[in-house]
Amino acid sequence: MDGTTVRHINxxxxxxxxxxxxxSHKLAALFSRIFNRRIESPSLVEFHDGKRKKLLVHxxxxxxxRKPVEEIVEPCPGIYDILDFLKQNSVRMGIISNGLGKxxxxxxxKKFGLESYYEVKIFREDINRAKPWPDPILKALExxxxxxxxxxxxxxxxDRHKDIKAALAAEFYLPxxxxxxxxxxxxxxxxxxxxxxxxxxIMGWPDLEPTLHSLFKDxxxxxxxxxKLF
Length: 230
Fold this sequence. Notes:
Residues 37-52 have low confidence and may be disordered. This protein has one domain (6-229): 3-Layer(aba) Sandwich (Rossmann fold), CATH 3.40.50.1000. The chain has 9 helices and 8 strands. The chain is α/β, with parallel strands linked by helices. The protein is globular and about 50 Å long. The protein has a 6-stranded parallel beta sheet with strand order 4-3-8-5-6-7. Strands 1-2 form a two-stranded antiparallel sheet.
């Protein structure tokens, strides 16, 4: 969500939040090696005893935040044009984020009139492991009805290196094709590192419009359905 659907008015804040998120993932991986815990298996981990993780760092950051969401973020340029076009063409959409939904993510979606576009909304408190693990993507696809089949194509668009890694990891657990698409530079580096191809890189939503119009004009994508996750 942050960096793709909405952008931070102060980019420095987004950078700090992303760095903290990356550090938390690296620490979890380090502890798993030290204590010989295989935290990367199974692919989708449910809450133990029905309890959610406390996520103390995430909640502390949101308590520290005093400003309303409209003073922190704003919709990315061109996002409404893309969402409207996809909705008009019956493309099913979902949104996933490593950030909290309560007290932030859901407020952002409501404030900017984005809720109605997304069939599913997955935030940090909804899953046990965040990106770059594939859990958020798999969780989102578990909640769509009907579930994707081998005839579907999933587009996963993200702006961070971990987004591309999560999409590639999810591919092993899905019956259908998943196409990671990099939005801006950080994710673009990951696309190039994994030899996915420069055609999977966009630097802004207006860059995607010609491709979408061409895609849906070409025999309705050869009968394929597209599930799109931001």
